[in-house]
Design brief:
The chain is an alpha/beta fold. It has helices at residues 47-54, 96-101, 113-129, 145-157, 175-192, 226-229, 232-239; strands spanning 9-18, 21-31, 36-40, 62-67, 70-71, 79-82, 163-167, 195-199, 212-217, 220-224, 243-247, 253-257, 263-265. It has a single domain (9-223), classed as Rossmann fold. The two termini are 31 Å apart.
Length: 268
Amino acid sequence: MAADPEPVLSFAAATAELGGRTVWRDVDLEIKAGEFVAVLGPNGAGKTTLIKCVLGLIPLARGRLTVFGRPVQRGSDRVGYLPQRRSFDADLRIRGVDLVRLGLDGADWGLPLPFARAKSARVAEVIRLVGAEAYARRPIGELSGGEQQRLLIAQALVAGARMLLLDEPLESLDLNNQQAISSLIRRICREHQVTVLLVAHDVNPILPFLDRVVYVAQGQVVSGRPEAVITTETLTRLYGAPVEVLRTSDGRLVVVGQQEPVSYHGHG
């Protein structure tokens, strides 16, 4: 029997602290190549802190974190990052293709022509990958939210990232665009073995596309298949308060508790 592939991301007995406060502690987590993982939990629980630790922006207080088998380092081209969605002014004239090119290190000025051509070819390649060829040369301010999001994902991939960290990328999109972007991300994971960690507040639109969830709450982190983690027992323990998970007739998971308003977890 073949051995399981080595994890591309590994936390071991990891603890994060901010301003002397423990955000989460004793985290053991492994994520493998090509997995699509949602990072879930209430506001302020430490979801973005987890992402920033992977980026090398926040050091662990204790424990070990490796990315692609090596200690985490800041500024790796193998890790692409898309921060919480920023809005573009409708009058912004920069083209989508130029926005994607900004994801490459350096600039074309003074570089040999073959190198500039290689960069242009790489930009065109990732634009095709996200399905944005039809509008990539239009000003970014004229594009819809879903079109902008595809180009931002291309920007995060263009330098050769093998892991994407996406912080609330679906927050301001309508349901159709949320599902379309989620489907795109799953295809990138499957076909190109890119690992994706996506921070989400509402998992409902993305749950049918996920391999695993990582739930952060009350200083703890629990990971596993969605149906194994989003349960009455697990969420009650994480929140330290009664939480009930119900399944509706159409297959949705409904989470009812005192900590947050009712949230719906669609299950395909």
